[in-house]
Amino acid sequence: MKGKQINKTDLNNINLMLSKGFGIMQISRIIGCSDTTVSRVRDGRHVLQLAEKPAEHQSEKIKGNAVEQKLDVIIGLLNDIKEEWK
Predict the structure, then answer these.
(1) Angle CA 34–47–29, to nearest 5
(2) How far is CA 2 from CA 12, 32, 61, 66, in A?
(3) What's the CA gap between 28 and 24, in Å, rounded?
(4) Whole-number Å distance between alpha carbons of 34 and 42
(5) Half-sphere exposure of 76 (CA within 13 A, CB side)
(6) How far apart are CA 79 and CA 17, in angstroms?
(7) Rounded Cα–Cα distance for residues 16 and 18 (Å)
(8) Per-residue pLDDT reduced to its tens digit, 3-62
(9) 3-state secondary structure the chain
(10) Dihedral sign, Cα of residue 74, residue 75, residue 78, residue 80
(11) Distance between CA atoms of 26 and 35, rounded to whole angstroms?
(12) Residue 61 phi/psi, 5° resolution?
């Protein structure tokens, strides 16, 4: 059975079910993960794969600041046009 990637909560639930005497097949069906994953958790060999959030790049900050500055200039020009139009 192909399972899902488990998180820390699932890992804790699997450990709790193992301690209560649930079978590997029962746990895998309840949690929705593979039998192999439950076996690895039981044997203490499972490692959680944590997704890393991408770091904000300096260039993105610079681009954001440049856009804000240009927007301020554009808004100022539009306000000038609006005043002249009145």
Answers:
(1) 20
(2) 20, 9, 41, 48
(3) 6
(4) 13
(5) 6
(6) 66
(7) 5
(8) 578 888 999 999 999 999 999 999 999 998 889 999 999 998 887 766 655 666 666 666
(9) CCCCCCCHHHHHHHHHHHHCCCCHHHHHHHHCCCHHHHHHHHHCCCCCCCCCCCCCCHHHHHHHHHHHHHHHHHHHHHHHHHHHHC
(10) negative
(11) 9
(12) -65, -45
Per-residue model confidence (pLDDT) at position 66 = 76
Tokens representing residue 38 in the block: 């439950």
Residues 6/14, Cβ–Cβ less than 8 Å: yes
- Extract the tokens encoding 52: 């890393």
Two tokens at 22? 């649930």
- In this structure, what token pair is assigned to residue 84? 């002249």
* Whole-prediction pTM: 0.54
Measured CA to CA, the distance from residue 35 to residue 24 in angstroms comes to: 6
